[in-house]
UniProtKB/TrEMBL annotation:
Keywords of the record: Cytoplasm, Nucleus, Signalosome
Name of the featured protein: COP9 signalosome complex subunit 6
Purpose: Component of the COP9 signalosome complex (CSN), a complex involved in various cellular and developmental processes.
Spans traversing the lipid bilayer: none
Assigned protein family: Belongs to the peptidase M67A family. CSN6 subfamily.
UniProt GO BP: protein deneddylation
Primary location group: cytoplasm
GO-annotated cellular components: COP9 signalosome; cytoplasm
PROSITE patterns the record matches: MPN
Compartments, record wording: Cytoplasm; Nucleus
Organism: Aphis craccivora
InterPro entries named among the record's database cross-references: EIF3F/CSN6-like_C, JAMM/MPN+_dom, MPN, MPN_CSN6
Length: 319
């Protein structure tokens, strides 16, 4: 969704935007789903544009006391100005995405933002400028930066919070690195484990569904080739090109008897019975839903009727 018409240069890390000897004020609990979302966002954007460009998004989760739990994320749209340095966040797009996520994840709040694809996991002056825009959305947002090009074995993710420091009498915004821990839920752990198994090596991998369909396709293909070979043999025997082998013919007849007869009345009777059972189950589900709605309507009607009766009785006492 980003406006990436202008090719952006790779940022050089700026060490003087990170405060040293300062301890973070909050603890971070990061879910692997967020990392997967960020990686997918950057990969998709890079594939569309054809070159590595920064991808920016929002972090949502829960906050309890001084602990922030980052549980999900969504992408943000931005525009690069003509100087090829300044990035402007699209607030209208953010408001629209936040409203959509609130309808599904009503208990998750905006916690901060992320950026990736800048060539480093160190913050830069450009990140400071974007962070100042994010402060207009949340008072104390956190900042996550990931380097997808990193070849190290450690997770190339850094999380920061911002502070205001006085340098030479001038207030200056700096980042403070935060420590984080990974936490998962049961459903999330299953999904992450599936992705990890599929991407455990660099070879081309297919999904489990594709593998199952491939096995079935290969089995049907082999059966088709064998049937063609048998049919060719029978044609050659009929034409006198092959000698008659009664043992083979008996096996052919036995094989044909094993195959289901699709045109028999019993097949269609079983098929219609199965279809009727499925339709009946669906119909019972609809009836149950309608009965529940009628029951709710009756309960609401009784509540209103009781109120009217009580009101009439009270009114009759004063007559």
């Amino acid at each position: 969704m980003e406006n990436t018409n202008v090719e952006m240069e790779v940022d050089e890390p700026q060490n003087n935007v990170v405060a040293t000897n300062v301890t973070g004020s909050v603890s971070i609990s990061l879910h692997p789903l967020v990392i997967l979302n960020i990686s997918e966002h950057w990969t998709r954007l890079t594939a569309q544009v054809g070159t590595s460009v920064p991808s920016i998004g929002a972090l949502i989760g829960k906050q309890k006391d001084r602990t922030l739990e980052i549980m999900n994320s969504f992408e943000l749209s931005y525009t690069v100005l003509e100087d090829n340095e300044t990035m402007i966040i699209d607030r209208d797009y953010y408001n629209s995405k936040e409203e959509q996520f609130k309808q599904v994840f009503c208990d998750l709040d905006f916690l901060g933002w992320y950026i990736t694809g800048t060539g480093s996991d160190k913050p830069t002056f450009r990140d400071i400028d974007v962070h100042k825009q994010i402060i207009n959305i949340a008072e104390s947002p956190i900042f996550l930066k990931m380097d997808p090009h990193g070849g190290q074995t450690d997770l190339p993710v850094k999380v920061y919070e911002s502070i205001i420091d006085i340098m030479n009498g001038v207030p200056k915004m700096l980042f403070v690195e935060l420590t984080y821990t990974l936490s998962t839920e049961d459903a999330e752990r299953i999904g992450v484990d599936h992705v990890a198994r599929m991407s455990s090596n660099d070879a081309q991998e297919n999904s489990l569904v594709a593998e199952t369909l491939t096995v079935q396709f290969n089995a049907i293909k082999m059966l088709h080739s064998r049937v063609k070979m048998l049919l060719q043999y029978l044609k050659e025997v009929k034409n006198g090109d092959q000698e008659i082998n009664n043992e083979f013919l008996r096996e052919f007849v036995s094989l044909c008897h094993r195959l289901p007869v699709m045109e028999s009345g019993e097949f269609y009777r079983d098929l219609y019975t199965h279809c009727n059972d499925v339709a009946l189950i669906a119909y019972l589900g609809v009836l149950t839903k309608c009965t529940n709605e009628v029951n709710d309507y009756c309960n609401k009607f009784n509540v209103l009727y009781d109120r009217q009766v009580v009101g009439r009785k009270v009114k009759a006492l004063f007559l």
